[in-house]
């Protein structure tokens, strides 16, 4: 029996448009001889629908769309689709895999393992499947065992005996006599996760001695990026089909067909594909057609502008330089050179007039409040906020999406100005450490941009240029020291002593960085949505602002 995987890019809430994509892909799969086509988790609603699930009209329409899908499904092929369905308990829903043929629903299987960690909060909306639920459906004499995303991630043998849940839905499928194991998935991208999923699928196939079909979602939904890369493995763990990353596709295969190679891609190629997809989908799904970036001449804004050019095309990107009295000539020149090499639109809006007006207006008032405290940054932040106001005005007038340019290192320690350089609709690189910013920029120069990012942007000392001769390393340790410490504190959630031991840095230095990290929580609560590319991004972090523990 031939099976197809419809690796589609749903839009959250676009119920009828998503269903049309499903119908089109199902018809194509049938023409290619498939008897079953498998789509991703919650493909009709889009994933994650979040509090749309609290709106009764949305849930009713989801049911209506499913009913229409049953009526309109192509003849001669079964569809496995993800949607929400009423659960056995009043006022709750199930995250459900529905197997249907034209005119009938063959099986509904609810998701059993509901994640509540990091960016996931499925217990808020869903009730898990009963332990004795029927998971297997017969398609043309082949018994298909159904699981949904997290259901497949609790194999204690894969995780060295560790389990997050006290049941294994894949084992339940096998106990019920499944011939083929099918998983409908919407698993967000993180660097390196593509290889982990391949290991997961191959392990399940070899452990249970059955073919495994893993249908993944693709596309960007707010800060989450879904990279696709759907997989099909034979009973011996060898792959018979691998879908492309970062694009929609339909693949038809024989679950016991000839083995093919899975070619892993480099981390930087992964990052480029993920961020470009996240950018373009965020704009497309919110109805925007272009982007704009404040260009400082530094590496962060250069990288964001480069990614925007890849996502939108050069003609749809605007770069804006906003020099002040503290801006160096090379900063403006580097910004202009970058824009020229990328082919994007470029303008210069000097801020000196506004800067001087703020000083004239505020200086007497501030003097009346007493002498400035040591390390006062009031007028440094005024400059950043003038730039933020200019960029927002241009965004209002042009309808372009304003992209923020802060990296994860700066965001971690609060080295950014609220309502200044944090202004914007999407934080593109706020989940990339500064050292990753340099690495990705060099990779893009070599592989995608033909050296468009000026070498001086890659080599000059980082600076906010808000005071004379300012450099980042006057306020922060070198990024070669800072990033490993922050990786321990943020991504591993290590204690100060644990982070010091892991990095070899003095505990007092780690403590100072940790203080900056926790004190900057209030800033991060106000960030634009951040494109998630690690397993621990700001969107999944939920620390209190007002707290006294370190």
Describe this structure in words.
The protein has helices at about 15-30, 55-70, 170-175, 195-210, 265-285, 300-310, 330-340, 350-365, 380-400, 410-415, 435-445, 455-460, 480-490, 495-505, 505-520, 520-525; strands at about 5, 35-40, 80-85, 95-100, 105-110, 135-140, 140-150, 180-185, 210-215, 220, 225, 230-235, 240, 250-255, 290-295, 315-320, 345-350, 400-405, 425. It has about 550 residues and is α/β, with parallel strands linked by helices. It folds into two domains: about 5-255, Nitrilase/N-carbamoyl-D-aminoacid amidohydrolase (4-Layer Sandwich), CATH 3.60.110.10; about 270-470 and about 520-540, HUPs (Rossmann fold, 3-Layer(aba) Sandwich), CATH 3.40.50.620. The chain has a six-stranded mixed beta sheet, with helices on one face. The protein has a six-stranded mixed beta sheet with strand order 6-7-8-9-12-13, with helices on one face. A five-stranded parallel beta sheet has the order 17-16-15-18-19, with helices on both faces. The longest helix is centred in the C-terminal third of the chain and has 21 residues, at about 380-400.
In short:
With 550 residues, the chain is α/β, with parallel strands linked by helices. The protein has helices at 15-31, 56-72, 169-175, 193-208, 267-285, 299-312, 329-342, 352-367, 378-398, 408-413, 434-447, 455-459, 479-491, 496-503, 507-519, 521-524, and strands spanning 3-7, 36-38, 78-86, 93-101, 104-110, 136-139, 142-148, 180-184, 212-215, 218-221, 224-227, 231-233, 239-242, 249-253, 291-294, 317-321, 345-348, 401-404, 426-427.
């Amino acid at each position: 029996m031939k099976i197809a995987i419809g690796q589609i890019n749903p839009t959250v809430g676009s119920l009828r448009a998503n269903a049309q994509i499903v119908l089109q892909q199902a018809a194509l799969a049938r023409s290619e001889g498939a008897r079953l086509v498998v789509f991703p988790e919650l493909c009709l609603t889009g994933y994650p629908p979040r509090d749309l699930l609290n709106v009764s009209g949305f849930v009713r329409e989801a049911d209506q769309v499913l009913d229409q899908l049953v009526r309109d499904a192509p003849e001669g092929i079964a569809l496995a689709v993800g949607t929400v369905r009423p659960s056995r308990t009043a006022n709750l829903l199930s995250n459900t895999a529905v197997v249907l043929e034209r005119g009938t629903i063959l099986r509904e299987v609810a998701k059993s393992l509901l994640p509540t960690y990091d960016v996931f909060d499925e217990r808020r909306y869903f009730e898990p499947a009963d332990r004795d639920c029927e998971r297997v459906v017969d398609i043309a004499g082949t018994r298909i065992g159904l699981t949904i995303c997290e259901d497949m991630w609790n194999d204690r043998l894969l995780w060295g005996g560790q389990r997050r849940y006290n049941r294994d839905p894949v084992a339940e499928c096998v106990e019920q006599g499944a011939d083929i194991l099918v998983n409908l998935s919407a698993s967000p991208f993180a660097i390196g996760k593509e290889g982990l999923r391949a290991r997961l699928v191959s392990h399940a196939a070899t452990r249970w001695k059955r073919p495994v079909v893993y249908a993944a979602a693709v596309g960007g939904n707010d800060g989450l990026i879904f990279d696709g890369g759907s997989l099909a493995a034979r009973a011996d763990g060898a792959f018979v089909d691998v879908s492309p990353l970062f694009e929609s596709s339909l693949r038809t295969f024989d679950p016991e067909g000839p083995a093919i190679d899975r070619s892993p891609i480099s981390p930087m190629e992964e990052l480029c594909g993920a961020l470009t997809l996240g950018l373009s989908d965020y704009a497309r799904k919110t109805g925007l057609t272009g982007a704009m970036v404040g260009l400082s001449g530094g590496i962060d804004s250069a990288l964001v502008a480069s990614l925007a050019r890849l996502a939108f095309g050069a003609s749809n990107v605007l770069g804006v330089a906003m020099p002040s009295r503290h801006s160096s000539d090379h900063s403006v020149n580097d910004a202009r050179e970058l824009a020229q090499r990328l082919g994007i639109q470029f303008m210069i809006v000097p801020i000196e007039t506004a800067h001087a007006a703020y000083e004239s207006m505020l200086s007497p008032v501030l003097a009346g409040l007493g002498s400035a405290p040591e390390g006062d940054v009031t007028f440094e932040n005024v400059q950043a906020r003038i730039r933020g106001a200019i960029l927002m005005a241009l965004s209002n007038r042009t309808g372009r999406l304003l992209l923020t340019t802060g990296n994860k290192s700066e965001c971690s320690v609060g080295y950014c100005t609220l309502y200044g350089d944090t202004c914007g609709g999407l934080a593109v690189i706020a989940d990339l450490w500064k050292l990753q910013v340099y690495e990705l920029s060099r990779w893009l120069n070599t592989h995608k941009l033909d050296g468009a990012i000026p070498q001086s942007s890659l080599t000059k000392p980082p600076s906010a240029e808000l005071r004379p001769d300012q450099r980042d390393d006057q306020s922060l340790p070198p990024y070669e020291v800072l990033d490993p410490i922050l990786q321990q504190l943020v991504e591993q959630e290590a204690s100060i002593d644990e982070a010091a031991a892991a990095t070899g840095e003095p505990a007092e230095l780690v403590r100072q960085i940790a203080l900056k990290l926790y004190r900057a929580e209030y800033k991060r609560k106000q960030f634009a949505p951040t494109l998630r590319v690690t397993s621990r991004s700001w969107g999944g972090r939920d620390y209190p602002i007002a707290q006294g523990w370190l």
